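$ fold --in a.seq
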Amino acid sequence: RERERERVERVTRVGRSSRFSSAGARRHTFAMATGDVEMESAAPTGSGSNAESHTRVTDLPLDVQQSILGSLDWQSLPKAAMACSSWSELVRRHESSPGCGLEWSHAMFRGSPAKSPLLRGGPKSVPGAERDFVRGLLDRSGYLDKSTRPDLVVVTVTPSWEPKLQLIADAFLELLPNRRSVHVVCCVAVGIIGTDESGVVHEIDDGSTEADAIAVALLHLGQNQRVFSVAERNSSARQRRKKHVDSSDEEIDRTLSKMEAFMKGSVPEAESGDPAQRCRAERGILGLLVGDNVYDVSDMKTKIEGRFGCIHLMGGLCGYDTRKQAVYYSSPESRKLEEEARAAARRDTAEGPQTRSAAAEGGRPWKRPRISACALFVCNLRSTRASYRGIKQLMPDYRVEVAEADPDGSKVCSLRQVAGDGRVEEGPPVPIYQVLRELEEVHGSLHGVTFGVKRRSLVSIDSQDPVATADDGTDLAGHLPATHVRTQVESVDIVRGVWDSTSPGTSRLEAIVVPLDLGPQDVCSFYTYSAQESLRELGEILDTLGTQEQRIEGSGCFGGFLVICNARGTYLHNGKQNVESNVLTSALPNTPVIGFFANGEVGPMPFREYFAAPRGGEGGESGEAQHVNTVLQGNTSVLTLLRRP
C-alpha cells in the first residue's frame, strides 16, 4: 500500500509538470510515472536492459491503473495520456465513464467589498484587484483538483457587490483555463444562499446581522452532459415601438433547436412517439432561469416550455432596483457576438460618421447590452426538484354535499364531515356559515385561510420517476408504483361569499365561491401556512432520498440550487437565521448549495399541493404525461439537487 501510494504521488507530480512535445520527453514522462527513472540511461531498446527488472505501473491490474488515473485532476489527465498508448486508452475510458465529472466546487466571502483587503478602495481600488480576489476564490474552491473541467459558473451577490460584478465576471473568464467554453451567470439579489469552504450552507438576507456576501459555484460535468444557454436583452419601449429590437428571439429558437437535436442524438427516448417516454427524456434537462422582471421571465419560460414541456426548470426573480442591472451573463456564443460588435464599433469609428446622428454618437464607446433574463440548461443530468411552502390543515375533512356552478368556479353551499376512518357522518349536511363560524373559533380569524380539495396524484420529483397524474378515484395500479402516489391539496383563495337573500336583515353566508371545478363527493377542508409545516414538508422531500444513512452514503447528491421567497427566511422563522439551510446541511452534509432570495419563484407546485394541468391533450389525465409542470409562484422555496446516475 505504501508503494502504491508513493507511485500515485509520483504520477500526480509528473502530471502537473510542464507539457512535453517530443517523443523522447513523453518517454521520460512515462519513466517517471512508472518509477523506472533509469530507463533513459539504460541500454537501448532490444538489448538486455535492466529496465525490465523494475515493477512498472503498467504491470499492475487494469482496475488499479484506472484507480490511479482516476485520482488525477482534469489538467493532469491529458499529460498522463501522453505517457503511452495503454494509458491513453485508459484515460479515454475514464473520461467517457458516467462517473467521471459531476462534481461541484464552491467558495464564499462573507461581507461587503470594503471588508476585502483587495477591494477596500471601492471604484478606486488597485487595478487588477478583482482578478486577485477571484483567484483567491478559485484557489479556496479547489476547482483544479476535480476530475473534469468546470463548464458552468454561478455567482450570487448582495447589492453592495453590484458595482464590482461585471469586473468579477470578466476575471473568471480571464483566469479559467477553459475560458472559451465556459458559461457564466451572475445575479444580484437582496439575499443569497451559499456554501463556505467548510461545507456549511449560509442564508444571507436583509434580515441577517451580516447582510453582504458573494457566493461562487463551479459545476464540473462529464462527456455525457452538455450546457446550453440563452438570454433576453432588455430593450426600451422606444426601441420596441420602432421595431429596433435585436434578434434575441431568433437566438433563443436556434439554441433550443440545438438542444433538441442533442437530446435526440444522446437519449433514444427523446425520439419515441410515446409521450411518457419523451417526457422522461426531457426531464433529464435541468434548467436554471433567472431574471429581473416578471415579463421577460414569463416570456422566456413560455418559449422554453413550448419546446420542452417536461423540463426540470427552476429559478426566480432576482434584483433589488429596477434602475440597476441584476443579471450578468456570458456564454461562448455571446462572447463571439460581443467581439463582432466591438470590431464593428472600431470599424465605424475608423471610417468616421456619415450623418449628423452618427456624428453625435461617434464618440460613444461600445457598451454591453443589458441582460434582463437568462436560462442555463444542463442536458442528460439526473436531478431531484421540489418546492415546499408548508400547508397546514385547520379543520377536519369534509365531503362536498351541494355545489353549484358559478362563473368564477363553484359555489359551495353545504358540507358533510368525514371521520378519521374515512366514514361520512350521518345526519343533515352542515351549512357553510356554520363551518366558517367553527373555523373562526379555531383559527381566530379568516385571514390567511384557503380552501383546498384533496387529489390523488402521482408525485414525480426525481427526473427518473414515472410521469403521470390522475384525479381521485382513478385506478393508478399496474404500471404506476404505489410509493409515488400521494394525496395532495389543490389550495385556492376564496373568491367571495354569497349572502342569504331569503332572510332579510340577516348577515348569514349562504355559500362561498372558489375557483375550482367541484362536484359531490369531493373531499375538502380549510388550510393555512406555517413555518413548522414548511420544515416538515422539506423533511418529506428529503425522505424521498432514503434514510439518513442512505442519504449520506448513497444519495449521489453532489450539489444543489435553492431559491427562497423574500417573505421567508428570517421573517418566516421569527428572526432565526439559517433555519432551512441547517436542515439541508444536517440531512446532506456533503452537498453544497447556492441560490438567492427571490421576488417570485419558478418551480413546480409545492410537494403537498396539487396543480391541475390543463385538459384537452395537455396532460393531467391518467396515463398521460404532465406537460405543464412549472409555475411562477410566491411564498415558496424551490430546491433542486443534482445527482449522479
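$ fold --in b.seq
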Amino acid sequence: ARARGPSSSARAMTSHASTRALSELSASAIASTLDARNRDALVTAIASLSRRGGDGDVALAMDGAVANGLVRCTRDVARRLRDEARVRRFYALEPRGELPAEDDADAVAFAVRPQLSAMVTIAEHVRGVRDRRERALRERARRAANANRTKTSARDAAASLLTRVASGAMGKSESASRDRASGDAAMDAFSEVPPLPKMYVVCVPRATAMCEDALRELHALEYVEMTSCDAHLIPVEPDVFTLEYPECYSEIVTEEWHACTYYVAAALHKLQRDVTGLAHVVKGKGEIAHKVAQLMLELRLGGQADDEPEHVEPGVDGDSLIDMIVLIDRDVDMVTPLCTQLTYEGLIDEILGIEKGAVAIPKRAFEDEETRERKAREAEANLPEEQRGKMPVRARAHKAGEIAMRPKLNNTDKLFDEIRDLNFGRACNVIRDLATAIKEDYAAIKGSNVEDQHVSEIGDFVKKIKANIGGTGLDLHATLAKYLIDCTKKIWFQDRLECERLCVEGEDLKKVIEHIETMIYRGDEAVPCLRMIVLACICFNGFPPKVHEKLFSDMFNAFGPEIMLKLLALETAGLFVDREAAKKRPRGFAQVRKPLKLVADGVDGSEEPKDITFAYSSSGYAPLSCRIAEAATRGPWKTIAPNNTGEDVLKHLPGDTFEYTQTENDYGRATNTKASYREFNKRREKAAPLDGKDELWPKPTVLVFFIGGVTHAEIACLRHLAKTKECGCNFVVATTKVFNGDALLDTCGEDAERLETRLRVAHDTGGAPPS
C-alpha cells in the first residue's frame, strides 16, 4: 500500500496544536519554574530544621492552606521531604487536635500560613505534647512513691518529684526555655520518659510579629522556634497561580486589615526577580491594587539597597516572560462572583463544589430520577405529620448525602481539559458526540469480520474504552453532566438565573425583592440568600430604606441572631446598605453597564462563542473584571472608550486607576515612569500571523492578578480572549484564591469557625475575647 500524505484536517490539527503550544510556552515555563522553586524552598526549610535537631526524624504537621496548596500542587515534594528532610510522618493540623502519643519523632515542624487561627491551633498542640509528658512524669512519680516501704518516704518522694515536675513544666520565661534541655535533665529523674521534642513553626511565606505575639500570649513561644519558607505563588494549572489566601477579601473590606497587600507585592516582586524578569508595564484598578503597585517599587528599591540578585532575563533576547501586569481589586467587580457560573467547570463548582482540586460526587448522582423521587417520598414519610408537605427547598440540598467518589479535576484529564472552559450546553454536546463516536466504533468492529480487522484498529478502540470507563474520562463526565442537568432543571435554579438576569440588566427591583423573600420564606440556606441580596444591592445602587429594613428583619427572623454578624459585616463592606449609604460608597455598576457593554441579548451558549458572555449565557453578562483586563491590553486607560473618555468611565468604579512603566533611572535606581506601550505593541505586531492562520512569534503575555479571589468562569473568559485575533496576547491568571460566590461570602464577617477561634484565644489566655 502506498503511504498517503497528511489530510487537510490533519494539517489543520497540527497547525492548531503548534499554535497552542507556542501560546502556552511562556505560561508553562513560569509554572514549572515556580513549582521547582516552591519545592526547593519547602524542602530546604524542613531539612534545615532536621539538621538543627541533630539529624533526627521529623514529624510534619500542616494546615489546610499548606497541605492542599503547596504540598498537593507541587510535584515530588512529599518524596523529597522524606528523602532529604527525614520527614517520617505527615499530619493535618486541626483545631483541638493532638499529635499521636506513639509518635517518637525527634522534632515536630508545624507548617502554616501566618494567621491567628493557625497560631491558636499550634499552641494547643504544643500544650498537648507538654501536658502528655507531664502526665507521664507524674505517673512515674506515683509509681516510684508507691514502691517505697514507708508512708512517710513515699509521701516525701512524691511531693519532691511533683514539685520538680510542676516547676519545670510550668516555666513561662523565655530565658528558661532556652535552657529547656538542661532544665529537663535536672528535673527529670526518670530516663525512660522521653524529653520534649524540638518544635518549630514554619510560616509560609514569612514569620510575622503578629504570629510571635500570638504564641507569646498563648504561652507557647518558649517551646518553639520560628522560621520561614519563602514560597509565594502556587501553580494549580499551567496558567493559574494562587496564594491560597481565602480570607484576603474579607480582611480588606470588613476588618480593614491589609496584610495581603504585602503578600501580593512580595509574590510579584519575587516572581519578576527570580522567574520572569521585570514586566515592562504595570497598571490596574482599585485602592488595594494601587497600594500593591507602590509597594512593589519599594521592594525593588529595598532589594537594590540589600544587594539582592538582579532580575533574571529568561526570554528571547533578554526579554521578560511577562510583558504586562494588570492588578484588579475584587471590590471593583463584586457582581461577577455573585452570578452563577455557566461554564462546565464553573457549574461543577457552583453545584457540587471543587475543593483541593477534586469534586465530591454523591451517590445519588448515579441513581435515576425515579429512585431519587422514591427516596424523597420515603424521607418525607418519616417526618412528623405536621411537617409533611412542608419540606423546605434548599438551594444547596443536592450537596447532602453520602459521597461516592472524589475524582481529581485538572488538565491531566484530556476530556475535562477540552470542555472545562466551554458553556455547559456546549460541553454536553461534546460529551454526547464522543459517546456517539465510541458507540459507532463499537458497532463497526462488532459488525465486521475479524479477518478484515487490523490489530492496531482493535487496540486503539480498546485503549479508548479503557480511558473512558471506571469513573474516568467519558464515564465520569457523562455522570457529572447528567447530574448537573437534573439540578439545573429545578425551579430554584431557574428562579435564581432569572433573578440574576434582572439584576445585571437593572430592571424591576420589585420582582427581585419578591424572589429574595421567597428564598428566605421557603427555608433556603443563609449564604444563597445573602448572595442574591448583595447582588441586588450592587446592581441597583442600594435598597430603598424600608426594603433594607425589611430584608434585615426577615433574615434575622429566618436565621436567628447568628446572621447578625454577617449582615453587619456586609454593611461595613458597603455590600448591604440603603441608597443613602450607597451614595457615600458608590459601586458604579449601573454607570458602566452600557459603556463597557456588560450585557448582551440573545446569547446562545451552545454555539461557538463570539464574546465572553458565554460564561453567563442565561443573563448575557460579560464579566466586568474581564472587560477591564481586556481593555488594559489595548493601551492607555483613556483609550478604552470613545473620545478618550475611558478614565472618566472607570472613575465610577471603586478605587484608583494607574499605569506606569517599570524601569531604572540614569543612576541605575529603580523607578516608575509614564506608561509606554511601544514595546508591548511591537511584540504583539511581531506575533501577528501573516496568513491569519498561524503565529510566527509568541504573543505578549499579560499577568492578571485578582486581589481578593477569582472564579473559574473568569479564568475561562480570559482563556477565550487569548484565542481571539482582536486581543493578540496570552493571559496568565494569578490570585489570592480560586472560589465561587458562596465561598466568598462565607469568609465575610464572623462565622462559627472564627467565633470558635476567638473563644479559644480567650480561654487559652485567660482573658476576654479580643475585640
